[in-house]
Amino acid sequence: MDSLIGLLVAAPLLGAAVLLCGGRRLDRTGHWLGTALAATSFVIGAVLFFDMLGREGEDRALHQHLFSWVPVQGFQADVAFQLDQLSMTFVLLITGVGSLIHLYSIGYMEHDERRRRFFGYLNLFLAAMLLLVLADNYLLLYVGWEGVGLASFLLIGFWQHKPSAATAAKKAFIVNRVGDMGLSIAIFLMFTTFGTFAFGPVLENADRAGEGTLTAIGLMLLLAACGKSAQVPLQSWLGDAMEGPTPVSALIHAATMVTAGVYLITRSGAIFDAAPTAQTVVVTVGAVTLLFGAIVGCAKDDIKKALAGSTMSQIGYMVLAAGLGPIGYAFAIMHLVTHGFFKAGLFLGAGSVMHGMNDEVDMRKYGGLRRYMPVTFVTFGLGYLAIIGFPGLSGFFSKDLIIEAAFSAGGVQGWVLGGATLLGAGLTAYYMTRVMILTFFGEPRWKNRPAPSPASPDVEPSAQESGEHAEPHPHESPRSMTIPMIVLAFGSVFAGGLFNWGEAFVHWLEPVTSFEHPHPPIPIPVITAATVTMMLLGVGVAWAQYARRPVPVVAPRGSLLTRSARRDLLQDDFNHAVFVSGGQHLTRSLVYLDHTVVDGAVNGTAAAFGGLSGRMRKLQNGFARSYAVSMFGGAAVLVAATLLMRAV
Amino acid sequence: MNPVNYLYLAALLFTIGATGVLIRRNAIIVFMSIELMLNAANLTLVAFSRMHGNLDGQIMAFFVMVVAAAEVVVGLAIIVMLYRSRHSASVDDASLMKL
Amino acid sequence: MSTAATAASLLAADTSTGEAVQFYVLGVLAVAGALGTVLLRRAVHSALCLAGTMVILALFYLANGAYFLGVVQIVVYTGAVMMLFLFVLMLVGRTTADSLKETIKGQRWLALGCALGLAMLVIGGIGQATLGSEAFVGIGAANAEFGGNVPGIAERLFTEYVVAFEVTGALLTIAAVGATLLTHRERTEKARTQREQAIERVRLNQHVPPLPAPGVYARHNSVDRPGLLPDGTPSELTVNQTLRERGQLREVGQEQLAEVAAIDKRTADYHGRGEEARQ
């Protein structure tokens, strides 16, 4: 069984190699090959999963040592895999959702002539992501970490003919570099502290290291997680990443890659448990991000960007839960999985809507689509109910558990975190209801529309769209797109309940992440009631705002908060003012310094010596009498020196 | 009178000779100035010889004279040759050692 | 000044009044001679001044009891060396190098500075040195040791300093041979005939016709005045090479050139041609 682990990674890697190197002869079959290899990976994962179920708790983890990568005395880097319950969860999520999205992409990318390349990139992403979660040491994890970053860059910028897509890809890559730097520093620190970076030795010996070191490692890991998972302050790239094709947004920027940060924190739980300061920072980042993302999501008119804000917010929940320690790890991962289902479903639904609406993304130009695309409406609606935490659906269970865990953090911290998560739940309900109403209910606002107005600055009209300004004809998507949506909708509805059946998921993960029951200061039913109340409040406000009166096609000016939220709460302006301008000032002043001080010193020295030698050269005039003067001068100096020595 | 005065006179003559070397361009006059300096040195030797009651100083002066005579012979020969080839007795004209 | 007095003065810590007078008078003359050597424009005058200074120095040697050196000074220096200088002077003749005009910028001031500094330092050094009268011995005893100055010197020269003496003898021989070698010019090739010179002149295309004979373009009949070419510029070629190299050309002044122009103008006026016709 151990040897199957490598195949998990090898299958999509083979697909990527074949598709990217295979050339045009694979154009007609390449997408099926890619999908088949992703499905193969999923099947292998399922086999391993059932094999794992056949063993008991502690024995479930599998290891496979492929080869020694850097066999140097004092520095042993191995290519080795570790498949435990946590990795297994991710493997099933990645390969399962990944396979579905491969299937969906066949229909979605049908008219794109670079579809083969797209599937190659998707397979590359799957391979890198599986490497990330299967690695048994931080260095190999780093390889996967960089691999998914590369795949993300390639896929965001897949439509590279659009300047906005190319810019967004670069932005994602550059912002991720900041986080990657954190991860590499964390690995350096681990190596100097523990002498190794394999999970086993590092995590077992974590409590033996000094708390200061652990706090530093934890903060660096958090920085890495912030970069990859779009948490404050490295969140700015996720919104722009929606420039990529919608399946990419669903797979990479909703379901899997952006949750790598949560995986990293959960995996390194032993380090964070021993560094309370780092944990406090983690929950702070999570709480800030969940509100930040929710507020941004409330203001966006671009359906994908609204969902991106939502993703940010939900990952905030996960990071917050992961920062709570053993009471939260399992809930973070559970929410991660259910979020993977319903957010992927929502994105696929959004893609389906865009597919039927000539790639229009402005929700203000949707409306009343439920009659035209019923399957999309139903699946999207189920995902919607799941994410807002409608009782009985996935999101209800996982989010409710996180809110309980947040209240259990104890003291003021517990109340603050609990309040933030509750408020986040209300905001989630508000913005998702807004998306739902704007898209599927109300009057159709896409009829009798002359041309795409420049009212939505977020939207870059694609070449295809600007080619046909005709009125869109909304239609249901082909079966290859609806089947994945239906499957994901099932996941959105039932996953939470299944996981929570007798705390199955918690017990499943307990050997890896350890678990403590949260003990909130107020009774659990009260919290649940408060959550449901907040949710209903959010839905009600959104209904009152968007369903009771007609929605203007052109967005109203809005309040200051709305306007800043449309600009992603000024995050780009902040980055520009602080880092870009600051960096430019720094470089300019450094260039100035270089020109004046360094060059000045160098050139000045050269000029001084040049001038000096020019003058000294005049001494060498060839006249014996001039030399004689020097000689007599020297003689005089010698006499003076002699007399002085005698006098002393 | 203190015989040290001879030394002062010698110093004066030496300095005048040195100045001559430095400011005259005619090689022959430069040579004469050098002879003047040598003679000034001889005068000090003779004066010291008297002060210390020792003939060694005079012997030394004698050798200086011999060497000076040899030097004059060779030096004047060089000047004559220079004049033949360059048609000038100016020390400044022989300034080939510059850039 | 009697011999006894001289002997006494040579022994005494302080010299006699006579010697003092002699020193001051001759010392002034010696300095004047030295200054003349350095400052007089003509080399012959310099040489004569130097000869005078050397004679005075010979007298000082005698006064200091160095009788042998005094005589040698007169015979060798004033007699032989200075005559050699005069011979060479006659050989070289007057040159432009005699000019006292300084050509190197700042040389004079630097030289004066160095010389003054050196003088002050040396004189100060002598003043500082412990050469008081208590150290004064006098040459009398040393001279009397072997029955006189000359036997005393001879005794030392041929015993203690005999090696140095022989080496200086060798030095003198070498100097004489060297000087002979330097100034000797052996003709190593056949002298060129007039025909060969003419052929080479044509081949080099310089002065294809023979040089102008003296007085061809001359307006004056002295040999040191260059003739004027048809455009009025002086031609150096018309003056003897020796005079040219000695710098003994007589300058053709502006008045001569003006004179030529005036003659031209008068000629033109006589012929009744206008200004522009001459242009």
TrEMBL record, chain A:
A single BP term in Gene Ontology: ATP synthesis coupled electron transport
Q: Which UniProt keywords apply?
A: Membrane, Transmembrane, Transmembrane helix
Q: May I have one GO cellular component term? A: membrane
Q: Does the keyword Chaperone apply?
A: no
Q: What InterPro entries does the database record attribute to this sequence? A: NADHpl_OxRdtase_5_subgr, ND/Mrp_TM, NU5C-like, Proton_antipo_N
**Any idea where the NADH-Ubiquinone oxidoreductase (complex I) chain 5 N-terminal domain is?**
69-119
Domain NADH:quinone oxidoreductase/Mrp antiporter transmembrane: where? 135-421
Positions of the UniProt region annotated as Disordered: 449-478
Q: Per the database entry, which stretches of residues form a coiled coil?
A: none
Name the residue ranges with Basic and acidic residues bias.
Answer: 466-478
The name this protein carries in UniProt is NADH-quinone oxidoreductase subunit L
Classification from the root reads: Bacteria, Bacillati, Actinomycetota, Actinomycetes, Kitasatosporales
Q: Which gene encodes it?
A: nuoL
Automatic annotation (TrEMBL), chain B:
Q: Which Pfam families match?
A: Oxidored_q2
Lipid bilayer topology: Multi-pass membrane protein
Q: What is its main location?
A: membrane
Q: Which residues cross the membrane?
A: 6-23, 28-48, 60-83
Q: Which GO terms describe its biological process?
A: ATP synthesis coupled electron transport
Note the superkingdom of the native organism: Bacteria
**Gene Ontology cellular-component terms listed:** NADH dehydrogenase complex; plasma membrane
Q: Report the EC number(s), separated by commas if there are several.
A: 7.1.1.-
GO terms assigned for molecular function = NADH dehydrogenase (quinone) (non-electrogenic) activity; quinone binding
Q: Which reaction is the catalytic activity of this chain?
A: a quinone + NADH + 5 H(+)(in) = a quinol + NAD(+) + 4 H(+)(out)
Q: Where in the cell is it found?
A: Cell membrane; Membrane
Ordered alphabetically, the record's keywords are: Cell membrane, Membrane, NAD, Oxidoreductase, Quinone, Translocase, Transmembrane, Transmembrane helix, Transport
Annotated InterPro entries = NADH_UbQ_OxRdtase_chain4L/K, NUOK/Mnh_C1-like
Family per similarity comment: Belongs to the complex I subunit 4L family.
Q: Assembly and partners?
A: NDH-1 is composed of 14 different subunits. Subunits NuoA, H, J, K, L, M, N constitute the membrane sector of the complex.
Q: What does this protein do?
A: NDH-1 shuttles electrons from NADH, via FMN and iron-sulfur (Fe-S) centers, to quinones in the respiratory chain. The immediate electron acceptor for the enzyme in this species is believed to be a menaquinone. Couples the redox reaction to proton translocation (for every two electrons transferred, four hydrogen ions are translocated across the cytoplasmic membrane), and thus conserves the redox energy in a proton gradient.
This protein is called what? NADH-quinone oxidoreductase subunit K
Species in which this protein is naturally found: Streptomyces chumphonensis
